[in-house]
Amino acid sequence: MIDYISGTVAELQPTVVVIDNHGIGYEMAITLTTYDALLKAKAGETVKLWVSEVIREDAHLLNGFASRRERTLHGLLVNVTKSKKLTNVRASGSDEKAHIVPPIVFSLKEALEYIKADEYVEITPNHIRMRKIILDEIERKRVARAAGNAEE
């Protein structure tokens, strides 16, 4: 893997540059930002381009960038589909602890005083529970709306 190539500019076009490094020419695709940076370089001056390689069965392509940051951003754009590795390792302070409120234990008399008109008290041998008469929330709203229209 090539990290960067330094050499003199042999040929410069808005999308392609050829860098001469000790008699070997490296052709690279470049961005407009890199093109502007290369235009500012003086003739014969050594330039340094950060390289991103694309290796295929039929070609070995080089992309040149004026800075390492630009190369990193290009890599993020090209490799969008890479997913985060899922592991069981987590940072110790990143998760907040959930505080679970303990249930309030009512006696039968307290439960009967506490319930509303759309609730009832369910009594089993082991528990006393307060429940909604209609469990489905959408159905409860529909019945409440119908009861509100009936009162008018």
What does the model show?
The chain has about 150 residues and is an alpha+beta fold. It folds into 2 domains: about 5-80, Nucleic acid-binding proteins (OB fold (Dihydrolipoamide Acetyltransferase, E2P)), CATH 2.40.50; about 110-145, no CATH class. Helix content is about 30%, strand content about 30%. A 5-stranded mixed β-barrel has the order 1-2-3-5-4. A hairpin with a 4-residue loop joins strand 6 (about 120-125) and strand 7 (about 130). It is rod-shaped, with a radius of gyration of 35 Å. The N and C termini lie far apart (about 80 Å). The model has no long low-confidence stretch (mean pLDDT about 80).
- Which range does the strand content fall in? 25-35%
Q: Overall pLDDT, averaged?
A: 81
Structural class: alpha+beta
Per CATH, what is the topology of the largest domain? Answer: OB fold (Dihydrolipoamide Acetyltransferase, E2P)
List SSEs in N-to-C order. Answer: EEEHEEHHEEH
Task: Evaluate the radius of gyration.
Answer: 35 Å
What separation lies between the terminal Cα atoms? Answer: 79 Å
**How many individual helices?**
4
User: Which residue ranges are poorly predicted, with pLDDT under 50 across at least 5 consecutive positions?
Assistant: none
Number of domains: 2
Shape: rod-shaped
Spatial strand order of the main sheet: 1-2-3-5-4
CATH superfamily of the largest domain: Nucleic acid-binding proteins
Q: Largest sheet, described in full?
A: 5 strands, mixed, barrel
- Estimate percent helicity: 25-40%
CATH architecture of the largest domain: Beta Barrel
CATH class category name of the largest domain: Mainly Beta
Number of strands: 7
